[in-house]
Amino acid sequence: MPAHVEWFDKVINFPPRAYIDTSYLLYLKSYLTHRTDIRYQSCKNFYDKMIAHNVSMYTSVLSLEEAIYIILYKYGVSRDMKNFQDRNGNAFSKISDFRKERRREFIQSYKKNLAGVIDFIQFFFNLGIRLAFPKSYIIPTSSRKFTVKDKSGSVANYAFGLIKKYELDPMDAFHVAIAKCLGIDHIVSTDKGLKVINEIKLFCYN
Amino acid sequence: MKEKHFDLQRKIADLEKRNKELDDKLSRLNQLLLPFLESLEEETQIEEKLKKEMPKLKFKKQDPFALGKGGWGVPYEELKELLDEE
Lengths: 206, 86
Description:
The complex is a heterodimer.
Chain A: E1 4-7, E2 17-20, H1 22-31, H2 38-52, E3 56-59, H3 61-81, H4 95-101, H5 103-127, E4 130-131, E5 137-140, E6 146-149, H6 151-166, H7 170-181, E7 186-189, E8 201-204
Parallel strand pairs in A: 1-8, 2-3, 2-7, 3-4, 7-8
Antiparallel strand pairs in A: 5-6
Helix pairs in contact in A: 1-2, 1-3, 3-5, 4-5, 6-7
Chain B: H1 2-53, H2 76-85
């Protein structure tokens, strides 16, 4: 049975809660500087619809970490380091080499691109998306003894199950597992790859 | 009169029994709740400690889509490439 996928512009019935993934956050952020792009507009329109339908939006620190990594290193520092050469006269291909060999230039690039991160965090805080953590819980095993069950164990278990079942990218699997452990079945993403997962309903950019 | 007296005594005994049952239930409930309360107290203590260590960041509350002039954002093709590599 294929997973339930709905394209952003076709969604009529909105769930009470939805999990937002990294790609969708970055599309929304890029809409700010590229407002005429119809693909970014589609994401922004869907965000407006979720707000209008009182959808409680959730994400996790995974999304923040991924977004910050992309903004700071994968886009920012990686682009800047191409202007410099290593000791053999070749362009840098690894951030770790750039950081080691061109310490001063690395720090300059890091500080410059940090502005983009702060801009993103400010944007994120204003979106009204909740950062959720599946919490620990305690269950009684007898009238006197208690066991602390850490839900992160359930997250890992569910994620590994997804990886095994669908040969899924581990990060995607952890996003889905966190959403499921929070009791959320709807994922908002621009990644069509998630449509193979039967356990979720995917809202995606077409 | 005697009948009434015995009837009252039975009622009192029933009430005492019920009272004891409720006490036991309350005691069991307290035992169940205690770890949750301790966990809640611990969470509150951690929160207070964090507040002292790191003051809460204050971001200007505004329409997120009114922000970002000159902020981070990339063209679609570039963003797609960045995400596809992830």
